[in-house]
Design goal:
186 residues; mainly alpha
C-alpha cells in the first residue's frame, strides 16, 4: 500500500491514483486479449505448451481485474456524498480496512475470474494494486496463480473456447512446475 501511504488522501491525490489505475487497466486489458489470442493459436497449431506464455496470460487477466476494481474503489471514494474522502477516518489501519471492504465488494459483485477465488487471496491482492514494489506485486500474483491455477485455467479456457481436457491438464502441469521454480511456496 505504498502509494496510499505516501500521498495525502485528498481528492486530488485520489484522482491521480485513479488516473494511474486507468492507465494500468488499459495496458493489462490489451495484454490479456493479446495473450489469450496467442494461447488459442498455440492450441490450434498443436504447439508445445509454453508455461511463460500462460503465466503472462494469467498475470495480465488478474492485473486487469484488480486494477479495474481498484479504480472503481478510488472513484467511489472520490464521488462519495460528503466528498471528504478518507480524511474523516482517523487511522491508516481503518482507512485500509474501509478501502479493502469496498475493493472486495467490487470484486465479488463483478462477474470475472477473481470473484471465484478465496477472500484471503483477495485481501492480499488489494495490497498489490496500491504497491509500488514490483517484486512484491509479481510474487503475490504468482502465488495467487499457483494456488488457484485449476480454477483460473478452467475459466479462461472456457472464455476462449478451448475444451480440450488433455491440453488443459498438460497446461496446468507445465505452469505448476514452472511457477514452483520461481516462487518460494509457504
Amino acid at each position: 500500500m505504498d502509494v496510499l501511504k505516501s500521498l495525502p488522501l485528498e481528492t486530488e491525490a485520489l484522482q491521480h491514483i485513479s488516473n494511474v489505475l486507468e492507465e494500468r487497466v488499459i495496458l493489462y486489458k490489451k495484454r490479456s486479449i493479446e495473450t489469450k489470442r496467442a494461447i488459442k493459436a498455440m492450441h490450434r497449431a498443436n504447439l508445445q505448451i509454453d508455461p511463460l506464455a500462460f503465466q503472462i496470460m494469467l498475470e495480465a487477466e488478474i492485473y486487469y481485474e484488480i486494477n479495474f476494481a481498484g479504480k472503481k474503489t478510488i472513484d467511489e471514494i472520490i464521488s462519495s456524498e460528503n466528498n471528504l474522502g478518507l480524511s474523516i477516518i482517523p487511522s491508516q489501519f481503518l482507512q485500509r480496512n474501509y478501502l479493502v471492504k469496498i475493493f472486495l465488494n467490487h470484486i465479488k459483485n463483478s462477474n470475472n475470474t477473481l470473484s471465484k477465488i478465496k477472500v484471503e487471496s483477495l485481501e492480499t491482492i488489494f495490497d498489490v494494486v496500491f504497491s509500488l514494489n514490483e517484486d512484491f506485486q509479481r510474487l503475490i500474483i504468482r502465488k495467487v496463480i499457483f494456488y488457484n491455477l485449476h480454477m483460473l485455467i478452467e475459466i479462461i479456457f472456457k472464455n476462449i473456447t478451448i475444451i480440450d481436457d488433455e491440453y488443459k491438464e498438460k497446461a496446468i502441469y507445465a505452469i505448476q512446475n514452472y511457477l514452483k521454480n520461481r516462487i518460494q511456496l509457504e
